[in-house]
Amino acid sequence: MHNDFTLFLREYPNGKKVFFYYAYDKEGRRRGPWTTKSMKKTAARNYCNGLLLAGELIPGQKKVLTFGDYAKGFWERGSEYIENQESRADITDSYIETCQRHLTNQILPFFGKTPLDKITDDDVNKWLLGFKKREVVINGKPKTTGYKNTYANSVFGTLTLMMGEAVKRKLISQNPCGNVSRLKNDRKKMEILTVEEAQKLFPDDYAAVWGDKEAAYIANKLASLTGMRIGEILGMRGEFVFDDYIYVCGQYTRYGYGPTKTKANRKIPLIPEMIALLRKLMEKNGAGYVFSFDGGATPAGQTYISRAFQAAMINTGISGTEIKRRGLTVHGWRHFLNTELLRQGLTIEQIQVVTGHITDGMTTDRYNHLDARQLADVMKAQQVIAGNHPGGNGSPPENPETSKMVSAGPLIVNFPQKEILNAEAS
Hints:
By secondary structure, the chain is of the alpha+beta class. It folds into three domains: 5-64, no CATH class; 69-168, no CATH class; 191-414, hpI Integrase, Chain A (Orthogonal Bundle), CATH 1.10.443. The protein is built from 17 helices and eleven strands. It has helices spanning 41-54, 67-71, 80-86, 93-111, 121-129, 149-168, 195-201, 207-210, 214-226, 230-234, 272-285, 302-315, 320-326, 332-343, 348-355, 372-385, 400-406, and strands at 5-11, 17-24, 30-38, 134-138, 141-145, 189-191, 245-248, 251-253, 256-258, 266-269, 412-414. The strands form five sheets. It has a three-stranded antiparallel β-sheet. Strands 4-5 form a two-stranded antiparallel sheet. Strands 6-11 form a two-stranded antiparallel ribbon. Strand 2 (17-24) and strand 3 (30-38) form a beta hairpin. Helix 4 packs across helix 6 (149-168), helix 9 (214-226) crosses helix 11 (272-285) and helix 9 crosses helix 14. The chain is elongated, with a radius of gyration of 29 Å. The two termini are 53 Å apart.
């Protein structure tokens, strides 16, 4: 078995010595010789290795497709892959942007110049393990940094998808990522708020906790009762607020207004006091964006709602250190609501109607339509969360177990894996 090339020294009539090389084609036949134009063996070897990596070791031979060649334009609107996928399901701008960032920052620097068919599972495994200690260049200066396994696995997912597509196009025979296992889960744990802590955040006199941030107070209370994503809250329009429910059919992100993350619309039942708060804002913003400071034309920003929430927690006695330790964010309301509905005995199907989560068990569209019993159960749970008695007139909850569940201590849940850099997790 031959090496890819062989170096030898040739002397010219003037006494100058230059390294030349022979190369071997796929049939093992020797081709050449060709000059390296170098008088030093190390430089000559580096020159040949560069040609080999670029698929140009044998002049005139059909150029070998490198991963970089294959990846050009892959994550752009109008590309073969995106066009093919969008004929089956929508692909969001944020997803494309995240995958392109993975490609540019983490994949191309390692595999860009490698022939597509030369990437092995061993290469992929070493690259994946290297995320724990990676050499990067920041502001022109080399630096060693480490990444979380969750991020490394997310980037690995992008590479796996791209190599799988190469198999489909018959550019390679098998996916080198197929025999590589993901790194172990190191997702950050978070503590959600207790019901008691939540109720302290939403007193009748909101100004005592939220100051003049009424819109942020209403937005967070809405999140605590519905588990809506922050983009869905910002995208909430007055035209979709009804007497006893809201219709969630869009979200507002940095890309503007668009469909919800799952592309599925849903009706969320809502207690009267929350409907009244939304309509209070609608007095200024009409049928436009509910959480707006310009008459409904554009929504408020995520920062406004998030910072006000942080300040409100501090005002109720949760320190900044505690907020950071517990990982308390606006998105945490989604965990909070999901957990409380489970505690209070709602079915998985009922909860999915509210949160919009999609699982393998959601097989029909019936979960997008509430019957009278579901409406009553969801509102009853919201009343408990809000500190009201479902029975009215100061009567205790109908189910004595509810009181025990509500008084339980902090809950620990897994923080969801984000498309990593995307703040809107599922």
